[in-house]
Amino acid sequence: MWQAPALCNEANNHNDGEELTKKSGILASLLAALCVSTAPSAQSQELYWTTSGMFGPFNIQGLIPTFPTARDITIPVSMWIVKHPKGVVVFDTGNNVAISDSTENCKKYWAAGSCDFLKPSQQRSDVIDKQLEKVGLKVDDVKVVVTSHSHLDHAGNIAMFPKAVHVFQKKELYQGYWPEKFQGRAANGTFVLNDLVSARDYDFYEIDGDYDLFGDGTVKIISTPGHTIGHQSLKVKLKSGQMIILSQDAIWMQENLDGYPAGLNFSIQAYTDSLNKLKRMRDLEGGKLFMAHDAGQFAKDGNKWHK
Questions:
Q1: 3-state secondary structure of 227
Q2: Counting Cβ atoms within 10 Å, is residue 285 exposed (0-12), middle (13-18) or buried (19+)?
């Protein structure tokens, strides 16, 4: 029976291997190498940042009404792929595949006003299944799909993952099916009902609050309500030890960090609390904070692996 972990534990109990070294320098060296190679891989995460096409150009004040000057922006629609020893995770699935390739297609699936304002550029090759293929993965390789919230540009393609476990905050699912009236209840509006209905019979893990996804502290779901009632962010510890916070719509872009709040929120108080929570986490833990719709960040760090 394979006993490498037990041997490693025994070696660690001998004052840095001094007794073993006295018995056999060669044996001690071999055993040390073996212990490294069989140690639990608690920091072997890799993270890929991609986008479901782009939105824009449009006036930033359409998203952030308090921003003092009008200017056009074009922004990413962030999706994430996490490789973990226990399985592949997708964090957000972007815009539904049905809106790809033309404004005409967009208006068949989304409300016309959403298409006209957001101006999605998504091509079929930008959709999450094709982005997985780009990095050598398939839809069926994905063990877990974590969805930050149920808006049209984040939960659009959960139906592509029938074999995955889908992790939502429980109250976010309720909101997706029946939003507050002030959020709009059009079936093809900000919450696209078919995005959820098409996956209704899938395996959903409905959580309440923070959750350590694999139990080793390396992929943590962080509850960040405010933008929606059950928004959640993700914190990933990479192979290098670097900690990355993926805010998604808890923080859209740098302008929000500069003090101009997002203009679409379930609760501005909860939104502010969540934004400050992620900022504190970044500063106290020495991590990086990647925001869902920040064009400057994506230009620098998007479309590549972080290890």
A1: coil
A2: exposed
- The owner of tokens 């696209």 is 192
DSSP tag of 159: G
Cα-trace Rg, the chain: 22
Residue 13 buriedness (CB in 10 A; 0-12 / 13-18 / 19+)? exposed
Residue-wise pLDDT for 178-232, tens only, equals 999 999 999 999 999 999 999 999 999 999 999 999 999 999 999 999 999 999 9
CB count, 10 Å around CB of 229?
20
DSSP element (H, E) containing 84: strand 72-84
Q: CA-CA distance, 251 to 293, in Å (whole number)? A: 8
Q: Which helix (H) or strand (E) holds 6?
A: helix 4-12
Number of Cα atoms under 13 Å in the Cβ half of residue 147: 34
- Give pTM, 2 decimals: 0.86
Strand order of the sheet with strand 203-207? 203-207, 165-169, 142-146, 87-91, 72-84, 46-59, 304-306
Burial class (CB in 10 A: 0-12, 13-18, 19+), 263: middle
Question: Which phi and psi (to 5°) does residue 136 adopt?
Answer: 85, 20
Rounded to the nearest angstrom, the gap between the alpha carbon of residue 117 and the centroid of all alpha carbons in its chain is: 24
DSSP 145: E
Nearest to 232 by CA among 257, 214, 213: 213
**If DSSP states are collapsed to H, E and C, what string results for 232-267?**
EEEEEECCCCCEEEEEECCCCCHHHHCCCCCCCCCC
Three-state SS string over 21-69 comes to HHHCHHHHHHHHHHHHHHCCCCCCCEEEEEEEEEEEEEEHHHCCCCCCC
